[in-house]
Input
Amino acid sequence: SAKLGDIRPRLAPLTPTAVEQLALDALVRPKRVDRITDLIGNTPLVRLHHIERDCPGVELWAKCEFANPAGSVKDRPALRMMQDALSRGVLAGKRLIDSTSGNTGIAYSMVGAALGVPVTLVMPENVSEPRKQVTSAYGTELIYSDPMEGSDGAIVLARELVAKHPDRYYYPNQYANPSNPLAHYHGTGVEIWKQTQGRVTHFVTGIGTSGTVMGTSRRLRELGEAVRRPVKCIAMQPDDGMHGLEGLKHLPSSLVPGIYDPSVIDDTIWMPTDEGWDMADRLAEREGLFVGHSSGANVAAALRVGRELAEAGQSGVVVTVLCDRGDRYFVPLQWEKHYVW
Ligand code: PMP
Output
C-alpha cells in the first residue's frame, strides 16, 4: 500500500488516449510561427455582453485588431503593402517612406524590421515622445517636419523627399494603394464570416483611409450574397470635423481616398467624438476592453445599429472593429486635432 506522499504508483500513464488528444487539439492550440509577421491577422472576435444589454435580441461582436503584433488594425495593410512592393521589385535597394507617426507608422516599422526593409517616417517634431520611441525602437529613421505645419507639413516634406530622391525612397500611399483594402478583403472579412458562422447581418466601422471598411465590406457582401443573406455595411465618421478624414461630406473630392468606393457602403453613421470617448470608457470599465477612442466610436455606432434593430423588434448580429489599445493614447498629443487615424 502506498505511503502518504508517495504518489508515483497512483499516477496514470502520461499518454493521452486518442479521444483525449482530439479534445486537447481542439482546445489547446499554442501557436508557433516562423516570424512575427505570421502573427498578423487571425484576430479574436469578442462578444460585447454588457453593451448588448442596450439592444435586446441583437448580438454585438468586436474584432480585436489590437491583438496584432504591433497593436493595431494597420498591421494587416502594412504587411500586404510591403509584400506587394517587394514582390513587384519596387522596393529593391530603397527605403519605405511615409508621413505618419500613428498606427500605420508603427506597423510599417515592425513589418520593415521583420522583413529587412528599412523604413523612414516623417513626423512633426512635436509628436509625443512615446511615438518617437516606439517607431525608432524598431530601427526606423525619423525625419522631423516643422511642428507649426502639423501633419500637413509632414505629408508635404515626405512627398518632397520622394520627388527629390526617387531612387532612395518608395512611397506606398495607403490612401490609393489597393493592397490596403485587399488585406481586409482576404483577412478581416473572411475571418468575421467564419467567426460568426455566416450569421453576421451588419458590419460597422470607421473611416481613416477607408481600407478597413472597403475591404471587409466588399468580402462580407460577396459571401452574404452567395447564400442570399445580405450583410449591411455601414461606415462611421466623426461628426465634428476634428478627427479622421474630417468627414468625407466636408471634403473636396480631390481629398477622398482613391481606394474609397461609395457603392460598397449601405449607410454612414455620423458620430460625435464625445460619444466615442464615453463608449471607450464603458468598454474598459464594463467589458474589460481598454481600447482607443476610434474603437469606442465604432462600438457606439454598432450600438446605434443594434438599438434600431431592437426597437423594430428585429434580431441581428452586428460586428465592429477594435482598432487599437487605449494605452496608445496615454500622452495627450498636441497635434491630435490634425491627426488622421
Ligand atoms: N482607428 C485607428 C486608431 C486607426 O489608426 C485607423 C487607421 N489609420 C483607423 C481607425 C481607420 O482605419 P482605415 O485606415 O482602414 O480606414
